[in-house]
Amino acid sequence: MNTTDDYVAFVALDWADKTHAFARHFAATNTTDTGTLAATPEAVHAWLEELHTKCGAGRVAVALEAGRKGLLHALVEHPWLDVFPVHPAACHRFTSAFRPSGAKDDIPDAQTLLTMVMHHRAKLRQLRLDSAQTRELAALVLARRQAVNRRTQLGSQLRTALKGYFPQALELIGDNLECSAALDFLQRWPDLTSAQKARPATLRGFYHQHAVRRPQVIEERLALIAGVRPLTSDPAVIGPAVLQVTMFVELLRVLQKHVERFEARVAEIFAVHPAAAFFRQLPGAGPTLAPRLLVAFGDDLGRYQEASDLQMFSGVAPVQQKSGTQLWVHWRWNASTFLRQTFVEWAGQTVLYSTWARAYYFRQKQHGKHRQSILRALAFKWIRILWRCWQDHAPYDEARYLESLKRRRSPLAAEIERGLAAA
Fold first, then answer.
1. Which domain holds residue 406?
2. Which residue from 46, 129, 199, 390 lies 20 to 30 Å from 178 (Cα-Cα)?
3. Domain final residue pick, 68, 102, 127
């Protein structure tokens, strides 16, 4: 990282929809100015090029609130800038320390960011871009997860709509309303009346076509269709509900198509990524979580100096607040939800594929811990293990880790031994 004397100027930008506020300090003249510029690509790049002209060949340190991706993308187009994203919570608390009234204004906020980058830069993390391959993978896995979340939300809304006029559908198509079989059924028979008008042979053919082949299950569903009565026969209720269900079905089909496209592109990039082998072989990672774990670590081995850095940045490490005799332990509210989900969801999968993870999970379960609490603690352990492997360029070895548990005489190792002996 550059020292203070290496920078010819310091710049802070406070993002807004219409205009960006800025504060700048020029080292050569020891002067500071403030102002605003239009929040358009043309204005931003023109302003940066003018700044470059003023600064000559020197480097400039820029601070802005993290999460302002549009502005961040513009800044990284200029290689003479060193960018320091500042967490919004850190900026807000720093401002509150000097303006306890809570007053907010864009220019003073920019001045606060300028103070932070000039005098507290050692506490900030300079932006270091991963390779284009890793950055594209990161954007894709996040976009896929957002699409899946939207699909889940629509599935919940579809379930609610069906309960209002056709609750029997939930037994006729199963619990997964997002699968193609459920969507095809509701497209053909969106209400009980239409399903009861269908011939039994047609319904049997539908179920066979959608991999429901057990005769008992099919006959139970046919008997249900024939023997139940509608929740309501009011056309004022059924008509709008059918239109709503049809809308949800069509939206879910579109979302599913795009989820599959995201997954195909993720698989394509991950297959040729230099780090893919390391993450692919992790227990329980699979085609969804392995790419997410890769982008969680990124390309820069120096990004997390200690395993605890990643544990805290991902939100897996808890926060302790102590005052006198009072101690409050809680999770990190300002961490990336997606990053925390990545590690916790993967930890849940390792319970199925890793001997020690499974033993740890059930040991904690016996002590009365809740599932999510156990998985967060397990993720905490996994991050420490993976960070060490990642730093050493060594693939994770389950047998080697089990051996280390034995050497350390871990209670977990003794429990695993007892379990193997009993088996």
1. 283-320+336-422
2. 199
3. 127
Supply the CATH number for residue 218's domain.
1.10.287
* Residues 110, 188 within the same domain: no
pLDDT attached to residue 423: 46
- Would you state the pLDDT for residue 138? 96
Which positions of the chain have pLDDT values less than 50? 1-3, 423
Q: What contacts 386, CB < 8 A, 6 or more positions away?
A: 282, 293, 297, 396
Residue 109, C-beta contacts closer than 8 angstroms, at least 6 positions apart: 14, 21, 91, 95
Q: Are 77 and 56 in contact (CB under 8 A)?
A: no
> Tell me, what's the pLDDT at 2?
43
Q: Are 348 and 341 in contact (CB under 8 A)?
A: no
pLDDT of 324: 60
The angle, 0 to 180 degrees and rounded to 10, between the axes of the packed helices 132-163 and 337-353 is 80
Query: Is 273 a domain residue?
Result: no
User: 90, 105, 127 — which closes off a domain?
Assistant: 127
